Amino acid sequence: MDEDTPPTDDLDSTETARPQSPILPQRIGPYRLLQKIGEGGMGVVYEAEQEKPVRRKVALKIIKPGMDSTQVLARFEAERQALAMMNHPNVAKVFDAGATEQGRPYFAMELVKGESITKYCDRQRLTNPERLELFMQVCEGVQHAHQKGIIHRDIKPSNILVQTEADKRIPKIIDFGVAKATQQRLTERTLFTELGVLIGTPEYMSPEQAEMTAQDIDTRTDVYSLGVLLYELLVGALPFDPRELRRAGFDEVRRRIREEEPSKPSTRISTLGDASTNSAAKRRADPRSLARQLRGDLDWITLRALEKDRSRRYGSPNELVADIQRHLDHEPVVAGAPGAGYRVGKFVRRHRIGVTVAASALVLVVGLAVRERVQAQKIAAERDRASREAVTAERVSEFLVRLFKVSDPSEARGNSITAREILDKGAREIEETLVDQPEVQARLMHTIGKVYSSLGLYSQAEPLIEQSLKICRLHFGDDHPDTLSSMNNLATAYMSRGRHDEAEPLYLGTLEARKRVLGDGHPDTLSSANNLANLYFNQGRYDEAGPLYLETLQARKRVLGDDHPRTLRSLNNLAGLYVYQGRHDEAVPLYLEALETQSRVLGDDHPDTLSSMNNLANVYLYQGRHNDAEPLYLKAVETQSRVLGDDHPTTLSSMNNLANLYFNQGRLGEAEPLHVETLETQRRVLGEDHVETVQSMNNLALLYQGQGRHDEAEILYLKIHEARKRLHGDNHPETANSLYNLACLEALRGNRTKAMDWLRLSVEAGWVDADWMAKDSDLESLHGPEFDALVARARENAAAQRAK
Question: Which of 12, 68, 122, 154 is catalytic?
């Protein structure tokens, strides 16, 4: 971790370290120390080699000798906890934590072989567009921290190291030593440095940090620091001369940060004198062309991020990224107050060839005035759209900030506020307070509906997304991106509750519209194709799902790349189809590929990674590889319970699968309580008729059957059959399976006539596996000419299905 960070300045320190000269220890716990690579205000960083349980190089951060005051220990623990909460490719990962034999805390994290972002960019002589691409990754990492409830408060070049991986530039955010939590405590120790102390690095510090009132700090503080970093990346100098700033007294430093307005980046270049030539050369430009690059968009974007009044700043790093992307795409940016000339310039750059040809033709055409008018209308419409988007985004941000104030101690008054309570409060307020703001109302309904869905609360999600879709259709039209997004997510909510007939027309409509509006290869179009394939799969329409899964996977590899999360989901989906088709040997390598890549790209505790882990365990279970399946199931259940919660549908699905494993191993005493707990929770969370609830009911019935508790099994089987008829209809594989199970139960009871009746109905449904039926020991008592005729009929049905 080639960290060239100078020692942290005393401006943010309330402790005085006792000078010591420690001898470098040879090892700490499972780590062998190799060399010292960095030192900050409270910790020393070593490159170390972890020797067990895996061998790898890590960065080991240990609290300095003598820095063991309550305050410093609290800071150190807070940093460790902040990093441990995050899992993002642009944030350094924490692997382990502990304490030395002397009781000094340490934590092991990802070893970043890189250098500070500004030095890297200068050494590589990156152009400003290349620097912007790198900067946007940093913003995404900070956004992830904010979503985890963490404000960094000390974003600066030395805390962002850049390394190269597979020819890709990857910035890594490090050092959360002064981070602030917005949603939970990071440590049980008390932090006392919040009031009356300057926290952060002065050159990159926001005006509200300079006020030294920690209660007034929110995520926009990091947006300001990102603005300073952006300024430095583009110009090669800071908004305020650091030498002058450091020479000023403590109060003067705070005043300048709070009150003095920085000059525009394009203007700052001209004040650098001879240094401007060197700065421009590092960006592969000359001073004049560099100033020209910065003038306009980049001036406005940077100064908006540096607004003293944070209500005028970008509301989040994502908003800053969005405006930079607009600049790179030659679209109008939200920042600044541009006039018509700016809009025309943007239009010309996006349509350079067309405008050149049109301009030549217009010289010869009498209709110049008409064309100018039309063009002006287009520009005005674009300006209005950008303005509306900005207003909508600002109002959405204001609503969410107000909504999350319930977790503020002054509002909560000691009460514990759950995420569910915040969501419920938001859902009520949207309907009551935003009736006169349809765009904002639709956007928020859709967003909160998606959050409900991600928590598995589909019944709460449905009415919000339904209303969002209704508003979008009324105000924006059928082909608007917000309308199509609401259609897609409403279909997903319907499918998640087993309402397939309602989901299908929505998925088909969304796919058709996105192909028409966005094109066949657009990521949103491919998402719609994937979702439609999922629906076909859930309906048992495997022959329709298969080609669509394969087509979507190939397109995503081409458009998004092999490592993209959506590509990996497609890989997972295709493997799942192979499992249901009995093609287990083809499914295993796909699941292994998906799991290895997701673990590397997304992290071991990402929901997608855990889903692949669970799916791979399922295949091992089908193959009888119980010893391979069990550790995967146990790890999936434990991690999903921690990450998603005990009541989340995905956690419950993994619990159900673990119980199935125990059942297949004959460990019925361990399987039964797991099955009962899963079923009771699914009934409460998902409802009696949800497909997952019915599947769990079926598994418990099979267990009762295996225990000889036939009466209890029969009650469940009959309930399952009725539920599956309601969900899927009479001629569905799951419905046929419930009939087959009733036949097996009656055969075990010795009721041949009843068993044959159920079996005949099952075969007539058209989905029974004839080979399995012929060798099923539960049906052995039924063997004879009548049984053989049913087996032959099942084979004929299978051949007819394949022919279709």
Answer: 154
